[in-house]
Design a protein that fits this description.
Largest sheet: 4 strands, mixed
Distance between the termini: 26 Å
Number of strands: 4
Strand order of the largest sheet: 2-1-3-4
Helix content: 40-55%
Shape: globular
Structural class: alpha+beta
Length: about 240
């Protein structure tokens, strides 16, 4: 995907997240568990995305060179969460729309610009939208281009972030085949001559699998599925 496409992805994910969250509250209440985020309730999920978006809107708006001056928002009561979340989504979308992606800002990654924030926050919203859709019981397919780009971002950004020294001893390559994009990606390429497994599914399902939202059993696995899952689990993300 191109930089100018991420804002629309973010806007569409934010809108779907808000709609699904409102429906899920009516259907199941704020204490409904979120399967993709063990230990979280629906209220925790809505607060988390709002808080994340509040932080990154501040980073971009202030052109922060470090996060030290950031003031965390106070946790809102449940009956204020949807409104607070909508406000944070709108603020983040507005500041990103009005800022050059090349503008330098602090991030936790080697790439230090607004373009990183734009892509990361689009994918953050996409994955958490799947989380709230799961609570609602209406998980919609992730578009192919979004799923593939999210998979690329996980491999390019999240894997090195979690494993800065490279693949640990004992790592094996896992081929990820996005059948709808006719594309392959590899986790831990070059760590062994032969991949331990080949996992096939849509780009969106592969994205949700590497983020541990769906088990590999829902995909097609050729090879050692248990080891493939173990390789993905080596990428521990906070």
């Amino acid at each position: 995907m191109e930089l100018d496409e991420y804002l629309q992805v973010l806007q569409e994910a934010d809108a779907r997240f808000a709609d699904a969250a409102a429906e899920a509250v009516l259907a199941h209440g704020w204490r409904a568990p979120v399967a993709g985020c063990p230990g979280w309730s629906l209220a925790d999920l809505v607060w988390h995305l709002a808080e994340v978006q509040h932080f990154w809107a501040w980073v971009v708006r202030t052109r922060a060179g470090d996060p030290g001056a950031y003031v965390e928002p106070a946790r809102r009561p449940d009956d204020e969460l949807l409104g607070f979340g909508l406000a944070q989504s709108a603020e983040l979308e507005t500041v990103l729309a009005g800022t050059d992606p090349a503008e330098r800002v602090w991030t936790w990654a080697p790439r230090q610009d607004v373009g990183f924030v734009l892509r990361r926050q689009a994918m953050e919203a996409v994955v958490h939208t799947a989380d709230v859709e799961e609570v609602l019981g209406d998980v919609r397919p992730i578009p192919t281009d979004v799923g593939l780009d999210g998979l690329d971002e996980w491999l390019e950004v999240m894997v090195p972030g979690a494993l800065p020294q490279g693949p640990p001893e004992g790592a094996h390559p896992v081929v990820l085949h996005a059948v709808d994009a006719d594309a392959e990606r590899v986790l831990f390429p070059g760590s062994r001559p032969v991949p331990i497994a080949r996992v096939t599914g849509t780009a969106g399902d592969l994205l949700l699998a590497v983020w541990r939202r769906v088990p590999l059993e829902v995909l097609t696995v050729d090879g050692d599925g248990l080891q493939a899952a173990a390789m993905i689990d080596l990428v521990r993300l906070e």
